[in-house]
Amino acid sequence: MLFDSVCTNGYIQTDGSTQVSRFLYDTKRFIRKNRWIVDTAPLQLYSSAIIFAPEMSIVRHTFKDKIPSWISTLPKVDSAWSAELQTLEGHSDEVTAVAFSPDGKLVASGSNDHTVKLWDPATGALQQTLEGHSDEVTAVAFSPDGKLVASGSWDHTVKLWDPATGALQQTLKGHSKTIGAVVFSPDGKLVASGSNDHTVKLWDPATGALQQTLEGHSKMIRAVAFSPDGKLVASGSYDCTVKLWDPATGALQQILEDHLDGVTAVAFSPNGKLMASGSGDRTVKLWDPATGALQQTLEGHSHSITAVEFSPDGKLVASGSWDHTVKLWDPATGALQQTLEGHSKTIGAVVFSPDGKLVASGSWDHTVKLWDPATGALQQTLEGHSKTIGAVEFSPDGKLVASGSWDHTVKLWDPATGALQQTPEGHSKMITAVEFSPDGKLVASGSWDHTVKLWDPATGALQQTLEGHSDWVQVVAFSPNGKLMASGSGDHTVKLWDPATGALQQTLEGHSGTVRAVAFSPNGKLVASGSHDCTVKLWDPATGALQQTLEGHSDWVQVVAFSSDGKLVASGSWDHTVKLWDPATGALQQTLEGHPDIVRAVAFLLDDKLVASGSDDHTVKLWDPATGALQQTIKVDAVTRELTFSKDGPYLETDSRPLNIKSLYTGTFAHERQNICNICVKDSWVTQEMTNAIWLPPDYRPTCSAFRGSILVLGHRSGRVTFMGFNL
Description:
This protein is mainly beta. The protein is globular, with a radius of gyration of 29 Å.
């Protein structure tokens, strides 16, 4: 097959000296990156594969006319191929361990889905799935001759497998708790396993017999490694130490102490003259195993280290971390050489291929990524956030998008072009909520720093900092005339502010749990608040007086909304119901039951003749508020968090796509849209009319999304914001 031949051809010249070699290199990268989806859905070769290829890709430029014409605005992508070569998808849970076979022709990955998978790293094809563990797999290792794979598990066992057939050869039992690490000795005559039972055990893989039990650590053991000559075993423990043992006698040789937190990873250099240890203290330390002397401390990760590995020539050390990155270091100088970014969750394992030309990383995002350590410098960073995006919101006129992030910033974007307009900075912790004022002249942001900030979206200038909450701000909302702003907080209060002056007008106290939702009545004379205390409270914003406490939900209240005439209040809850209340009397009018999951959005529409509810069950339900009868259930491809009635026709606008409700509407619109852009995001796909249309590569799968008109906005865990336009 062409894919296989191009991917596995190790003799393609990639120095860029000729046009042909550049094309072959680009083709090889293009194929490796898209192998899985092209095998699964071949027509994605002409849409997703080209759309998400780098700007400078020769294949992209050659075949860009094949991109479907209904995609009017392409997402911004990296300018050149990054260090990431390929993503291997197949596990259904976090990947905790990876290992190359000695000849580099297989990669083993262990996962919390209880399986070990064997892959061909040249093509990305899955070769075997090893099933037999009854709990999460924590560690994998190949024997030096490549004829065995060892796996350790939370089921307290080590299993030995034949990678050629997938057959189970041995089950090694003896540990009393979870296995944290497994490794073969250089001659293949021993397997070492470290456990939460504080011991290291040495086994004969041929017979399964226990040879030694190494005791001395006072806490769980997360890492073990043999020296290249097999004369030492290193073990790293949560007791903050590394211990070096003689595997022949079981005698303790050295105790290496300097880490300030548990040791999670250990590795020897190929010549045995250095040993690396990674720790929860965010550092990698390099030691002389002969003397126990500390040689280097490598600092740069922003979270705990989970894995360390030397390159085969000893000139690089790779470290993986909870900060989602892999870093490559020069062990001679301690200098950082590369930071490999692309995973969306904790790195569970890192390993070099035997020739040193690949780095494999396994992550809690369920993927294994293959990187070229020599070309990490090609990684490009688009303008965007540096951490997870928690909220995106369109301005009232749809001409701006605001995104709030864990990187403490708000960014304002032009959704038509994807261009960054402003980056208002000032919060000191993650941002949890963003909201435009009704006239679009202010953006409010709520944060874990206990403040609300008001910004001018045209200039990015800070207008006000609203201080007073004693815990994180969960939600913000403007009154219909824009003269008040309400904020709900983890401190159990709602505060009302004058956005023009920043003055605190009222503090509404009475809830006994976090306030998750606030809404103003259409005339601005009531404020409704929903809380973790399972109640809705109605307040007079002029006086701060509590008017009603609406009790009836059995779980958190997620959302509240008033009818257009103000005569009903709807509340959606984690108890899977919508309740309709009379705000004048506090009487319960209806309980709308039918969702099997959390209700996250409610809205009144069609002159209050319908109530719409959106849920985690991927449906929107339409109800008659007078009778409580269910009128229609519309399946959608995502969780619905926002619902509004369109001004352009009988459509229900959601944060994923507009829904046609013409069958329930008898009125007319002066400028009714003849077509709606029925686009949505479901898992790893952009869908059109509920059909998979564009596959989203792992780096482009969103943590949040918004849809308006013909523009789809995706916020990503990496901090990237993606815009796509459609002309259906």
